[in-house]
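Limitations
The structure tokens in this dataset are predictions for the assembled complex, not deposited experimental models. Users should treat interface geometry with appropriate caution, especially where small molecules or nucleic acid strands are included. An illustrative entry is reproduced here so readers can see what is and is not provided.
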Amino acid sequence: MALFAIENLTFTYPGSITPALVGINLDVNDGEFLVLCGQSGCGKSTLLRHLKGALTPHGARNGSISFKNVPLDEVSFRAQTSAIGYVLQNPENQIVTDKVWHELAFGLESLGYENAIIRLRVAEMASFFGIQDWYHKSVYELSGGQKQLLNLASVMTLQPDVLILDEPTSQLDPIAAADFLATIHKINNEIGTTIILSEHRLEEVLPGASRVIVMNQGQIACEGSPAHIGHELKRTDDPMLYAMPTPMRTYLALEDNVESVCPVTVRDGRDYLQKYQPAVSVESAIPVQPATSMKAGIPQTTTSTGEPISTLKHGICDASDCHDVYAEHESLNRGDIHDGYDCSDSRDIYAEHDRSDSRDIYAEHDRFGGNDSRDISEHAERGSSDDMHNGHDRRQSHDSPIVTLKNIWFRYEKNASDILRGLHLTVYRGEMYCIVGGNGTGKTTALGVLSGLYRPYRGKAQMLGVDITKSKIASLPQGSIAVLPQDPQTLFTRNTIKEDLMDMTKSKERIDDIAELTEITDLLEMHPYDVSGGEQQRAALAKVLLTEPKLLLMDEPTKGMDSFFKRKLAEILRNLRANGMTVILVSHDLEFCAMYADRCALFFDGSIVTENVPREFFSGNSFYTTAANRMSRHIFEDAITVEDVIEKCQTII
Amino acid sequence: MRDTFSSCNPIVNFIYFTCVLVITMCVKHPVILGISFASAMIYSIYLNGMKAIKFNIFFLLPLMLIAAIINPAFNHEGMTILTYIRDNPITYESIYYGIAAAVMIGSVILWFSCYNAIMTSDKFIYLFGKMIPALSLVISMALRFIPRYKIQIKRITNAQRGIGRDISAGNLIGRIKSGVSILSIMITWALENGVDTADAMRARGYGLKGRTSYSNFRFDVRDWTLTVVLMVLFIMVVIAIRAHFISIVYFPAFVMNDFDGIVFILYAAYAALCLLPLLLDIREDIVWRSLRLKI
Amino acid sequence: MPNYYLISLLLIVLAIAAFAMAFERRKPQARDLVIVAVLVAIAVASRAAFFMVPQVKPMIAIIIIAGVSLGAQSGFLVGALAGFLSNFIFGQGPWTPWQMFALGIIGFLAGILFRRSPLKTKRLPVCIFGGFSTLVLYGLIVDTSSAMMFTPRLSKEVLLTTYLAGLPFNAIHAVSTMIFLLILAKPMIEKLSRVKKKYGLVES
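Predicted assembly:
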């Protein structure tokens, strides 16, 4: 039975010329688990909001939507309230009351149920969701994940036929997100509620989905089962391919049979990769593996001068390409300085290899990446020629640590427990240093110490050559350190983004430059709250960059970003680092760190447990690592990104 | 401290506080006030511990002193003159009256400190949820927003520091200015994000006719018993006052009712009213002790 | 001797109840409730933004702005509820109804005076109203209540002394309210009218 039948739906927001939805035709069947994906601003939310009368936006509309064969406009508000459940993106904003129990009862109160019935329904839901332990708590005591679970539970008390969720996990950390999505699957499997979900975290969602709808610019680009949607994306050269789970992308790059079943989970991906197993011997014959250099007796991942080995990074379609060229350049210059078990030799070969290889890789990506990767290779080329120019300067700057923390101890109050416990950290100029780790390990506090917000009670902290444990952070040149906060909305004061930027500088030129760099030129006249989350993030970045920081600290910059914005962000950061800026970021996004970091560090229990270049870092971890590594670690020792896996597989063939 | 009375139905809590507050505020009888003050003091210390003791010494005592001084200083009624200050008579009666006023204000404030410990916001919302459903929801929402806004103010402050706007430095005007800009960011944020909250309310059917108001509270036998006991005691005291068994006149001369058996019972009734929560706790203690002994 | 305290308390409770019932009768929509709750919470939480200057409280300024942009009835409710809820944090007391009433009346008058008036966009009149209402309305109402609490036998002298004793505090409060209104009124009224459009609250 079709629960929803959408026919030829076209919708335009007031004051807008281009329609937000164009000719949407979609049937949603009872009991389905439908995943809606697409780039930010593709119309996902607009479409979802059309499925609930109370949330339908104002504007010009054509076409029809029916619910259980009745036009949706004719389904009463009361019937819609209980039959169609809706969970919004931001867990904080949707909670209405101050107590958990009251929130659970809210919808049932609206429907006018008696106390006894509400008590029963609330008790059921609280038990199903495991909420009974915090049933009497105030909402502000809950974690973000608990809040979103509460939103879900308080919708489920209405016993809806269909549950609509608009990017429900975008504000959650990976563990809370996985919990939440597992609960959604449980609801679908055990209660049979139809699920319509829009998500960026496809790795976790797709395995349980029955159908995937990909949207692009207000239209449905393609649809199909998770196992087949990939072929369709590949055929139409859809950029959404990049957002698909790692096993799928790997498979699609290597296989051409459009009828075949695409692996969706890491387990399926592992099974698929088995066919490359016999080739291990061939693989180890390749001389340029960092793992090989380890075997060759190089125990450390930083050279004797403390220079990070980031320059060794493999040529994947990202910033590291310019480093590779630079690495070659540098090692030629420095070959004589190093001695003993120096890695400069291997580095030469490595860089050489990369350079010759990289074209192929790009060509490979062009196959399904379209213009995007061409852009990137262009950038990379531009970057490398720049590097050739000022390679000498860069080398010097590379050697100088910009941040040195030694044995830092910090706690918020005298009687509280220590948050940072003997933290050591050295970051070099121009580096992109990523700190990963679980919640509550002290990552964000460490960022606070770096920004001068918190002063450690023990230890030494040198920032940009100034000892900040002795003198005040204020003695640093104004704006030399800037922080991009997790919540970009904490930075906007004015009625337009332009006015906000003008708070930072009077120079119109600089604003234009920054706006171009962060790609917000078209948004300058808009109100900061009228643009999308990703755009807000870029506007916030623009504002922060106007302080001309030498060191940029970022807290979860990719939170809630789709894969396109992530790549855009990586590109912006690379341009900035080319001009000598250093970036330290704290993130849960392992894929992002693996792709773009120079070095990664694992934060645990108030200090850094291990740090290394991404390749070594992620191939050294067994659990806390990228999906590509988990999927391929039984075959390749050090493939950490999809591109790595694809490349290695191709070498074997 | 685990308090049995606060686990009773909010209606019982509310009746209790209304009774003791009305009597405390209306009757300036020394014995009644004394009973009020002593019970309120004991109960507030029982509920709030050390915090209550500190509060009593540093806030309550000075306040009561002021009240005790203001009355004789401005009120020159009464016939027993103690002395003259700048040609104004200071009378014994007005001193007594001042002390009574001081004890009254002290008791009222102490009763309120007990009230604050027991009548939490959700109890208030339960009491008035049916009478003023929309406003009690507004209260609940505002109580949800307030801690959230405080956290957000902190975040904004930190974010502003992160782009070089330090707000704890500078002179008064500078500080106020940066405070205002933080507030301004917070206001925009709060108002804009409120749209989502309204959507979430609509999505869960707010605005449908016949909205009910759910509560976890039950009105059980114990609550009935307590209500009856409270009302009986209260009516006894009220009758005692109306019938002048308990009476007081300060001016022109200090005249109090005589003390006899009936009056003693009436005082005891008021004391029982005031001490009801503590009596409940004592009873609970005894029950638990005997339960443990049986094991 | 009449008990001034109880009589005035009764009147005040009745006045607050009247406003409350009028609001309930209007059957307010979700958006109406949210905007009132948000403003109440801002008024209460606003103190936290000035943790470094503790004597400064922007509450009255925000209540006035609420009255100016949302009208007299909402102005009263924002004021009264802000008074009520801030006492949930700092402790309810015999002063609660008076504070609620004083703050409510300020919001109410702000709505009456400025909602439809062309003066709304001018800073000075709103500032003057803010200073005056803080000093006279809030100051006098709250001081009268404490005078009544301290000495149930009211006299002119007692009242006068209480007012004089309270004057310095009320004056500082009034000046800070004026400063807040001077800086905050215009941008905040703009923000509110933008949000009112976004919420779809029509100017009635």
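Some entries come with short summary sentences. For this one: Chain A touches chain B through 66 residues (CB under 8 Å).
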